[in-house]
Design a protein that fits this description.
Blueprint: H1 2-5, H2 9-17, H3 20-41, H4 45-51, H5 53-82, H6 88-108, H7 118-138, H8 146-171, H9 178-186, H10 189-203, H11 209-264, E1 274-275, E2 278-279, H12 280-312
Helix pairs in contact: 3-12, 5-11, 5-12, 6-11, 7-8, 7-11, 8-9, 8-10, 9-11, 10-11, 11-12
Length: 326
């Protein structure tokens, strides 16, 4: 995915791969050290903090922001949960639609029953696509035009190589982690569907009958991967939003305690001395501000990934909405 997107490893790590709680902690550490550094560089930092008015104004604003933010997150959580509510006929329709797709998957893969685990289902579809691609290449004969052979071989080699990478990623991925969706994003099925349909349109009449059948099966398998990936993405985003609500609510409690304590009990005029070369008042205020920002930093870390995943999967089907090398 990094090679196709032309992005740096650091950017993809920040947007996708980094664990969201870990990334939120990293952001908190960065915020703390930036605040301390600014305090050290400011010649009047201790005097400003000693007046007390700046601290009161700042932490009063934090109290309002934290309460408002928690309210918004609770509303967001209710919105996510509302997707799970429905009448019995709606639930039956959802169930039948899911079973229809699973039956279609069973028809196109070498399995008696479609797997229930999302990662196993995706892996089975990817493996089936690779097998159909290999069978397509093997079905070419001496009567196939050289141009068609060259195009098909380049296409199947790229697909099989990509499928092997994605299959290996899915073997150790558990749903609930980003590993499943990361592997699914690494399989650029939309371009593969487009290329397969283009091969069928340009060289369909020149291909042997067996190769044509394998090409049709390959296209159908790739098209089945689309709803499977989108369904996995939807479940993952709902999972992430629920985790986001939990972490924001959990971080809001210490944030409120620290914020209120700074308003009621902290007197910067009575705090002196230094801690590791940093004025104690600067260190205390910086730590308190970082704690107060914790819910926002958690929200930022989760929304950053959810927005990035959503942007990358806006189109479904043979649509390419970004430059890609493969």
């Amino acid at each position: 995915m990094r090679e196709r997107a032309g992005e740096s490893r650091l950017k993809l790590w920040v947007y996708y791969e980094a664990g969201r709680p870990v990334f939120a902690v990293l952001l908190s550490v960065i915020v703390f050290f930036v605040l301390v550094t600014v305090g050290l560089l400011s010649p009047d930092a201790t005097a400003l903090l000693g007046s007390g008015s700046t601290i009161d104004t700042t932490f009063q604003a934090f109290v309002s922001a934290i309460v408002t933010g928690v309210t918004l997150v609770v509303t967001l959580n209710q919105l996510v949960l509302s997707q799970e509510f429905g009448t019995i006929d709606q639930e039956n329709e959802r169930f039948e639609g899911t079973m229809d797709v699973r039956d279609s998957v069973t028809e196109h893969v070498d399995s008696v029953v479609a797997p229930s685990d999302p990662s196993t289902l995706l892996r089975l579809l990817v493996q089936s696509a690779a097998e159909e691609a290999t069978a397509l290449e093997d079905a070419l004969d001496a009567g196939t035009p050289d141009e068609a052979v060259e195009v098909v071989e380049a296409y199947t080699d790229s697909l099989v190589s990509n499928a092997e990478t994605v299959t290996n990623q899915l073997e150790d991925a558990d749903f609930g982690t980003f590993g499943v969706l990361s592997a699914a994003l690494d399989f650029n099925y939309s371009l593969k569907v487009f290329d397969a349909r283009r091969i069928r349109a340009r060289y369909g009449e020149d291909l042997p009958a067996a190769a044509g059948e394998h090409l049709e099966e390959l296209i159908e398998t790739l098209e089945l991967f689309a709803p499977a990936r989108e369904h996995t993405k939807t479940l993952y985003i709902q999972w992430e939003l629920i985790d986001l609500s939990r972490y924001v609510l959990a971080s809001a409690i210490p944030a409120l305690i620290v914020t209120v304590s700074m308003l009621f009990y902290y007197d910067p005029g009575t705090v002196g001395g230094e801690f590791l070369g940093v004025p104690t008042s600067v260190a205390i205020v910086s730590a308190a501000i970082t704690t107060a920002l914790a819910p926002f930093l958690v929200l930022l870390s989760y929304v950053l990934r959810i927005a990035s995943v959503t942007k990358r999967t806006l189109a479904i089907g043979p649509f390419t909405i970004r430059d890609t090398a493969d």
